[in-house]
């Protein structure tokens, strides 16, 4: 009897502690781990994360294996085994600098697609296997919780039953994670059509601690006209389904469908969506633009520029900046940069979004992603100006600026241990692995080779990109197919032109 009472008391204490933590305003920052492979000043590793900038940081991404277990997508970077770089452990070790920091692991993402998650969610045994593997992974690397990023139930190869099965899966994950003192969050769509098809909002909302509304990518080069991808309010010329594609509509719709305000986190972007103007005399909203804008020097993805790329470009080739009175956010263009036109959030417009979230009683703000902000303060007096501004505006508190990080690649060993130098073999003719990590196929970009060095040679895995995506041989990740094909015909002859 005493043991039962003691267990209930401990459970109550854990739940109380969780409630107290969740009642505070949150600043959720996603970390795209592939930024470690970027060039020059765009390279961003775990040690570049300011552990006091955000309240929650999310490591993106892990995936789902064919065995229904969590799958590590880049073992060389993320694990310590086989001479790996231990990114998971280094990431959660940021809590040593800030004990209040919450570190979680995101599973899913756009590149993962939907079909495998749909199949897993429909099978009770597969769901149990997945939940067990989640707990095992989180505990092995000291993560504080899971961020589930299924994009999206019922969509992209999913099934109509996903809407019900998603709630069942999330309920089981909640039971498993909360029972172990961990949190459960989810990243969700801001589009009305997807919300209607994918989510039983009241049932789903009951399963999670926070709902990260991805209120960005509302427009992009997949449209053949310019528009703002994070626009706060409806643009006067919007009609048809475009009247739903704005931040305000998305948040109010989630609220009207039964999502509690205290669980909603407004997602924003530290990047722009860009187009190549068809007519240089037409540079406004809804201008014809049939192809993606020029790529940046770090992300190298046509149609996409990190805020760091946008602001650094302005230092040498100034953008024409347009602030329409009917819009909160600016847009820019530079006819000398391949007629590129971009929509993005500025340090000022991001404050307005944070105040909007605060006025609507939301839990806080979220950003994708920490590594495309001006983290080196190349353009502003303070690093990570977008995240810093939105965090301070929502919380009402000033953040301390930390000194530049000490550069290091890993510290898995005791400091007294001598360093170990590992020389990786060059691939022999006919082999596909030239280095650890993701390697491109020279002809077909619908898949890539994931290469793990085991001390004597490479273990090779073939990984397919999801529908609508191709492997970008420059950035080493799956990207939108139109963006990869825009790099040039020499990269993916089997897939481009589309």
Automatic annotation (TrEMBL):
Domain (GH18): residue spans on this chain: 25-397
Signal peptide coordinates: 1-25
Residues annotated as domain Chitin-binding type-2: 430-487
Keywords associated with the record: Chitin-binding, Disulfide bond, Glycosidase, Hydrolase, Signal
GO molecular function terms listed in the Swiss-Prot or TrEMBL record: chitin binding; chitinase activity
Record-level GO BP terms: carbohydrate metabolic process; chitin catabolic process
Organism the protein comes from: Hirondellea gigas
Keyword flag Kinase: no
GO cellular component: extracellular region
Protein family membership: Belongs to the glycosyl hydrolase 18 family. Chitinase class II subfamily.
Protein name: Chitinase-3-like protein 1
């Amino acid at each position: 009897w005493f043991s039962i009472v003691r267990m209930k008391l401990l459970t109550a204490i854990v739940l109380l502690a969780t409630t107290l933590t969740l009642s505070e305003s949150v600043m959720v920052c996603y970390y795209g781990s592939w930024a470690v492979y970027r060039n020059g000043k765009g390279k961003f590793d775990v040690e570049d994360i300011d552990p006091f900038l955000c309240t929650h940081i999310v490591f993106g991404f892990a995936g789902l294996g064919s065995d229904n277990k969590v799958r590590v997508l880049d073992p060389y970077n993320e694990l310590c085994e086989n001479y790996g770089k231990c990114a998971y452990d280094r990431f959660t070790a940021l809590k040593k600098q800030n004990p209040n920091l919450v570190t979680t692991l995101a599973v899913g993402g756009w590149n993962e697609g939907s079909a495998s998650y749909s199949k897993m969610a429909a099978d009770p045994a597969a769901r149990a296997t997945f939940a067990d593997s989640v707990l095992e992974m989180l505990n092995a690397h000291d993560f504080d919780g899971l961020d589930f990023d299924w994009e999206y139930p019922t969509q992209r190869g999913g099934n109509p039953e996903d809407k019900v099965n998603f709630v069942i899966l999330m309920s089981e994950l909640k039971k498993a994670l909360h029972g172990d003192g961990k949190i459960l969050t989810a990243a969700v769509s801001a589009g009305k059509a997807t919300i209607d098809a994918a989510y039983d909002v009241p049932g789903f909302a009951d399963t999670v601690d926070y709902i990260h509304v991805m209120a960005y990518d509302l427009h992009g080069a997949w449209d053949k006209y310019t528009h703002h991808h994070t626009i706060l309010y409806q643009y006067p010329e919007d009609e048809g389904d475009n009247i739903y594609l704005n931040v305000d509509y998305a948040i109010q719709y989630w609220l009207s469908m039964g999502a509690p305000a205290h669980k909603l986190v407004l997602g924003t972007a530290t990047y722009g969506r860009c187009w190549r103007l068809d007519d240089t005399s037409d540079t406004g909203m809804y201008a014809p633009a049939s192809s993606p804008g020029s790529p940046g020097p770090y992300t190298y993805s046509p149609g996409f520029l990190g805020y760091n790329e946008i602001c650094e470009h302005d230092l040498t080739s100034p953008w024409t900046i347009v602030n329409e009175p009917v819009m909160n956010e600016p847009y820019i263009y530079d006819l000398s940069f391949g007629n590129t036109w971009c929509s993005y959030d500025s340090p000022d417009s991001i404050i307005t979004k944070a105040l909007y979230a605060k006025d609507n009683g939301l839990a806080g703000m979220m950003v994708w992603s920490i590594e495309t902000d001006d983290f080196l303060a190349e353009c502003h007096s303070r690093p990570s100006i977008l995240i810093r501004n939105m965090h301070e505006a929502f919380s009402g508190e000033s953040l301390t600026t930390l000194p530049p990080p000490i550069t290091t690649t890993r510290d898995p060993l005791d400091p007294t241990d001598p360093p170990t130098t590992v020389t990786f073999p060059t691939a022999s003719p006919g082999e596909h692995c030239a280095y650890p990590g993701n390697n491109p196929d020279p002809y077909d970009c619908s898949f890539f080779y994931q290469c793990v060095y085991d001390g004597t040679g490479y273990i090779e895995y073939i990984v397919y990109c999801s529908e609508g995506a191709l492997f970008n041989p420059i950035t080493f990740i799956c990207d939108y197919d139109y963006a990869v094909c825009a790099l040039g015909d020499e990269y993916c002859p089997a897939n481009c032109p589309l």
